[in-house]
């Protein structure tokens, strides 16, 4: 995969990750209020967009380290802060009741979405 296609994949996936995390967060918050939205598909969707976030950071690392692409240090910092926030969110899931997990992933997902927006603006 060449520099141009890796860069295009990183840019495109950034929008997918942004929209997906935002949608997953809103779904989780709505599921906290509406029991009919508490379905297994929501958790699969949350997992999918979080895995895509990890892939997105990996693509960014590949562009910077493997391809020698220069990016601002702040962009890189926010990318890793977003990844760290994802890890913190994941680590807290076992400490809460099932219904509180919806709040955790809802508000946490919105926080991560905000970090993604900030990373994209800086980049």
Structural notes for this entry:
With 123 residues, the chain is mostly helical. It has helices at 3-33, 40-66, 73-92, 98-122. It is elongated, with a radius of gyration of 15 Å. The mean pLDDT is 90.
Q: How is the topology of this model organized?
A:
Elements: H1 3-33, H2 40-66, H3 73-92, H4 98-122
Helix pairs in contact: 1-2, 1-4, 2-3, 3-4
Produce a short descriptive summary.
This protein has 123 residues and is an all-alpha fold. It has four helices and no strands. Helix 1 (3-33) packs antiparallel against helix 4.
| Uncertain residue ranges | none
Which sheet architecture does the biggest sheet show?
none
Shape field: elongated
Terminal Cα span? 22 Å
Proportion in helices:
over 70%
The helix-strand sequence is HHHH
What is the radius of gyration computed over CA atoms, rounded to a whole number of angstroms? 15 Å
% residues in beta strands: under 5%
Decide which structural class fits the backbone: mainly alpha
């Amino acid at each position: 995969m060449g520099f141009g296609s890796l860069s295009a994949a990183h840019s495109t996936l950034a929008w997918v990750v942004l929209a997906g995390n935002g949608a997953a967060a809103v779904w989780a918050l709505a599921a906290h209020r509406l029991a009919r939205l508490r379905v297994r598909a929501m958790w699969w969707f949350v997992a999918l967009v979080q895995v895509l976030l990890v892939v997105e950071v990996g693509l960014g690392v590949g562009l910077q380290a493997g391809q020698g692409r220069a990016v601002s240090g702040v962009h890189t910092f926010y990318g890793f802060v977003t990844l760290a926030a994802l890890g913190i969110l994941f680590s807290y899931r076992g400490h809460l009741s099932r219904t509180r997990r919806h709040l955790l992933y809802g508000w946490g997902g919105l926080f991560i979405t905000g970090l993604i927006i900030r990373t994209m603006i800086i980049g």
